[in-house]
Amino acid sequence: MLLAFAMAALLSGCGYNQFQTRDEAVKAAWGEVVNQYQRRADLIPNLVNTVKGYASHEKETLESVTRARAAATSFQITPEVLNNPEAFQKFQQVQGELSGALSRLMVVVEKYPDLKADASFRDLQSQLEGTENRITVARQRYIVSVQEYNVHVRSFPTNLTAMLFGYDVKPSFTVENEKAISTAPTVNFGK
User: Fold this and answer.
1) Sign of CA dihedral 76, 77, 80, 84
2) Distance, CA of 98 to CA of 37 (rounded, Å)
3) pTM of the model
């Protein structure tokens, strides 16, 4: 009995329970990121179909959005993705491709003033913009959650518990094209 009490006291002081709490927080934050990506994927077919009605000859752009969405939704998102850097990188890549395709779609929209005036398109565009903002917030929360977890994994004496129980540093979001996004975009209203 005394040995069991001593073990419980030792484990509670080594950070084991904090690992459980922080690991679950990372999983919950990741779940929200995935939820927001799914919301975006669900909105895209409606947006594409609305644009198709106005811009039927912009077939290549519409097809690239459809392909990117298919790739993003076919990627199997499991909790193991968090512990597999290669799978995590692949997930980020397909989501980045979808973001790029959506950007090209918005350029097509600029060519069609009647489309921008259409109420159903405005509603879809507003939903998509809101979704992109939600994705940004979900990513930020995930990054903070991973940061807290990783600091706990790497801090003494809880790093000893991490090694003992196999808690490894988790990957955070990274930007593939960091150099490209560090350059300010050129805005030109001239024709």
Assistant:
1) positive
2) 10
3) 0.59
What is the token pair recorded at 107? 């350029």
Q: Where are the domains of the chain?
A: 35-139
Angle, helices 16-54 vs 119-154, to 10°: value is 160
What is the CATH number assigned to the segment(s) 35-139? 1.20.1440.20
| Helix, strand, coil tally for the chain in percent (to 5) | 80, 0, 20
DSSP string, 69-123: HHHHHHS---GGGGG-HHHHHHHHHHHHHHHHHHHHHHHHHHT-HHHHH-HHHHH
Question: Which one, of 118, 173, 184, 113, lies nearest residue 143 by Cα?
Answer: 173
Helices 158-165 and 16-54, interaxial angle, to 10°?
Answer: 70
Q: What is the pLDDT of residues 127-169, one digit of tens each?
A: 878 888 888 898 899 999 999 999 999 988 888 888 888 989 8
Q: Work out the number of other CB atoms within 10 angstroms of the CB of residue 88.
A: 19
Q: CA 177 to CA 93: how far, in whole Å?
A: 11
